[in-house]
Design goal:
- The protein has helices spanning 4-17, 23-30, 34-46, 76-89, 96-109, 112-124, 143-155, 222-234, 247-251, 278-285, 298-313, and strands spanning 51-54, 60-63, 159-161, 169-179, 182-189, 194-199, 205-206, 237-243, 259-263, 269-275, 292-293.
- By secondary structure, it is an alpha+beta fold.
- It folds into 4 domains: 4-63, Winged helix-like DNA-binding domain superfamily/Winged helix DNA-binding domain (Arc Repressor Mutant, subunit A, Orthogonal Bundle); 76-124, no CATH class; 143-214, Roll (SH3 type barrels), CATH 2.30.30; 235-313, 2-Layer Sandwich (Alpha-Beta Plaits).
- The chain starts with a helix and ends with a helix.
- The longest helix has 16 residues, at 298-313.
- A hairpin with a 2-residue loop joins strand 4 and strand 5.
């Protein structure tokens, strides 16, 4: 027997296929009993789909007003969750327009009761600025590129990626990871058996792609791999900052994904971190509750100096 959601979706599709359906015929088509059909019809009505019923020997079920709506079997919580997710997508560079279109379509096909719930949520809430962790603009990512990469991961098909150094490389894609408003692709390079993290917004995908590949077990959790690699090499700028605190104390104050802490001695450690700009690093390190020392790169030294003077002028002498 089909699971309940799949069966109800099939039931609604049958009801849309022709005007009238006797209950026993629906039951036979779906491989269930007449009582189950009655229960499913009641559930459809609870979800807001108009289903009329005629009793007697010629009894049948028929979709009422609103029958042209496509089937979308979402309860209140599911509808709200999808709407919130789509609204969040409208803040991502590269998918703002498509996210807004999808949200508009969702609101049109929801039954009236759920549409009112989602509309109320939209009218009662407002969104603040999304990208407050950096002064760098969000990179644009083509939704078609994300779709192509997801399909290659699903089908276990290698991709060909262009390089400035020479011929395109053949890579095996394993996982897309979205983090800090960026998209990353985890790939395995079959020639070296090495695992790499690629920024999707800078990916030059060539066609045709590579052939099918047999997946191998990754060396670690792929999301953890992305966080570690980005912290080590994936930012636009990097810095080594001497902190007047032991490594354990610094680690307790930062997210491990944003930096690596190296012990220097019992009282000092080195924070290896990065960001999209030196200004972001300067602001971030200032939030640590420890004294620190910056001797490079020169751009970071200047940003820290300017911030220090600005903070000094902000308080009474």
């Amino acid at each position: 027997m089909r699971d309940t959601s799949a069966r109800m979706l099939a039931l609604l599709s049958l009801l849309q296929a022709r005007p009238d359906w006797p209950g026993p015929e629906l039951a036979e088509r779906l491989g269930v009993g007449v009582r189950t059909i009655r229960n499913d019809i009641a559930r459809l009505r609870e979800l807001g789909y108009p289903v009329d019923a005629a009793t007697g020997r010629a009894g049948h079920y028929r979709l009422g007003v609103g029958a042209s709506l496509p089937p979308l079997l979402l309860d209140d919580e599911e509808a709200v969750a999808v709407a919130i997710g789509l609204r969040a997508a409208t803040g991502l560079a590269g998918v703002r327009e498509t996210g807004a279109r999808a949200l508009a379509k969702l609101e049109r096909v929801l039954p009236a009761r759920l549409r009112r719930t989602v509309t109320a949520l939209a009218e009662a809430t407002a969104a603040g600025p999304e990208n407050t962790g950096t002064d760098a603009p969000d990179p644009e990512v083509d939704p078609a590129l994300l779709t192509a990469l997801a399909g290659a991961i699903r089908d276990r098909t290698a991709i060909r990626v262009g390089t400035a150094e020479g011929p395109a490389r053949v890579l095996e894609p394993y996982r897309l990871v979205s983090w800090q408003r960026r998209w990353y692709l985890v790939v395995r390079e079959p020639r070296t058996d090495g695992w790499r993290v690629q920024r999707v917004d800078g990916l030059d995908l060539r066609t045709p792609g590579g052939g099918r590949f047999t997946p191998v077990d990754p060396p670690e959790d792929l999301t953890d791999l992305v966080l570690r690699e980005v912290a080590a090499t994936g930012w636009s700028v990097h810095a080594r900052i001497l902190v007047d605190a032991p490594a354990a104390a610094v680690l307790a104050r930062i997210n491990p994904a944003v930096g690596v802490v190296e012990p220097r001695d019992a009282h000092r450690s080195v924070l290896v971190t990065g960001a999209d700009s030196h200004a972001t690093v300067a602001a971030y390190v200032g939030m640590l509750p420890f004294d620190f020392h910056v001797d490079g790169p020169p751009e970071l030294v200047e940003h820290v100096r300017v911030l220090g003077e600005r903070y000094r002028r902000a308080v009474p002498s």
